[in-house]
Amino acid sequence: MTREEAKKVAEVMLAYANGEKIESLYYGEYVSCEEPTFNWISGKGIENYRIKPKEKFNPKTLQPF
Q: ∠7-19-27 over CA atoms, to 5°?
């Protein structure tokens, strides 16, 4: 694991520890992951997890884009 990969792993794990939502890659789509196992070793494990992106809102209508 490179230092850059370790930074991404740490960022995702700290976000989870701080209560943020985490998503995992499942058949090509990111889905909500309530209790991630954080298997960073298998295959491309680093791309398998991400912090759930925050929704952006249109300030004029207050509706999601």
A: 70
